[in-house]
Amino acid sequence: MPSEAEYITVYLQDIKWNEPSITLQVEPQYTALDIVKTLVNKTRQFNHNSYELAEIFVSSGQLCKERRLDMSEIPYKVQGLWPKGGALAPDATYRFYLVRKGGPGGFLRSLSWTDCNHSLDASLDSYFMKFLEQKTAGENYADLCSLPDLNETTLLENLRQRFYTDAIYTYNKQSQQSHCGSGVEQTLLGAGPVLEAFGNAKTVHNDNSSRFGKFILVDFRKNGAVHGASVEKYLLEKSRIVSQSTNERNYHVFYYLLNGASPENQVGLLLTSQRVA
């Protein structure tokens, strides 16, 4: 049975094409050589031996690192090691590029991370510059936070234009309260003690001691660079659920759940007023 196909996007550096990148549907076991051959054939180049794949990392349009892939490497697996979502800064990105072997200035092949060559820097600069383009002056912005340059001159000019177009106020006041008047803010604030009750307990030294622990797992690449991390919360004392030391109590949530028990049940479970934390 054939394996499930995946998609890999490769950007073109030295090849003229209708689009800046090509997305290929590949098998997970395809090597870099397989993908180079496919791209060279698709873009009607003559010799696939003149090209190779490069893994590029760019951050803030300033830091640019590249690593030439060995032809036997599997790009799909390399792509799987890239950080996802919040693990990357908003302006950071990983990409594959199809580049000429050697590159400008006789670039020597290296399987480790090096600074990008100048031609690649230029193409990446043009990509990031489109995010920095500012709208033309004199435009009417409905939200002052959207002004491209926030200073006294632009603020007054935008307010003047909004005044002449009868768009003086940006927002209408809206109530965030529910029908009972508690409001979203109070609901969120009220949820804090309930959530903490699953891991907080009364101890000899503290009536509301947090018994949560955090396990931080950091993943590193072979070259020592960090490429991901995860945080796992856990209870430091699971034994507290079934037994407690003198003058200590169970987790608060235990008493929350049984607070509505009948007086008979409270006595039977040793949950009298003297025992409640």
Q: Overview of this structure, please?
A:
The protein is 25% helix and 22% strand. It has 277 residues and is α+β, with helices and mostly antiparallel strands. It has 2 domains: 124 residues, Ubiquitin-like (UB roll); 79 residues, no CATH class.
Roughly what is the average pLDDT, rounded to an integer? Answer: 73
What is the CATH architecture assignment of the largest domain?
Roll
Q: N-to-C SSE series?
A: EEHEEHEEHHHEEEEHH
As a percent range, the share of strand residues is 15-25%
Largest sheet: 6 strands, mixed
The top level CATH class name of the largest domain? Alpha Beta
Amino- and carboxy-terminal Cα gap: 61 Å
The name of the CATH topology of the largest domain is Ubiquitin-like (UB roll)
What's the helix count?
A: 7
Helix-residue proportion: 10-25%
Number of strands: 10
List its traits.
alpha+beta; 10 strands; flat; 277 residues; 2 domains; Ubiquitin-like (UB roll)
Give a brief rundown of this model:
This protein is α+β, with helices and mostly antiparallel strands. Helices cover 25% and strands 22% of the residues. Mean pLDDT is 73; it is low at 104-110.
Please specify the SSE layout and strand pairing:
Elements lengths: L5 E7 L8 E6 L5 H11 L8 E9 L3 E6 L6 H6 L11 E9 L13 E2 L2 H12 L22 H13 L18 H14 L3 E2 L7 E2 L1 E9 L5 E10 L16 H7 L4 H6 L9
Parallel strand pairs: 1-5
Antiparallel strand pairs: 1-2, 3-4, 3-5, 4-6, 7-8, 9-10
